[in-house]
């Protein structure tokens, strides 16, 4: 578990899930939450690869802060 300058730890699962999204595209998005009682950042929600941006935005609470990563598919003018 890594410690940040803020004094809050980052759960090891956060890094693991991010690397899975980045390398294997296992998830469409990851929502991270600060767990105040445990003083750490944890994974709150994982989006399935079939879910879209609307699902991502719907998973975010209206009145609480979250960190998130979204795997956005796009095509350039060169079709890359």
TrEMBL record:
It holds the Pfam family Cofilin_ADF. Residues 7-80 form the ADF-H domain. The keyword Ribosomal protein does not apply. InterPro entries: ADF-H, ADF-H/Gelsolin-like_dom_sf, ADF/Cofilin. Gene3D superfamilies: Severin (3.40.20.10). One of its GO terms (biological process) is actin filament depolymerization. Keywords: Actin-binding. The keyword Disulfide bond does not apply. It comes from the Eukaryota. GO terms for cellular component: actin cytoskeleton. GO terms for molecular function: actin binding. Belongs to the actin-binding proteins ADF family. This is Actin-depolymerizing factor 2. It comes from Morella rubra.
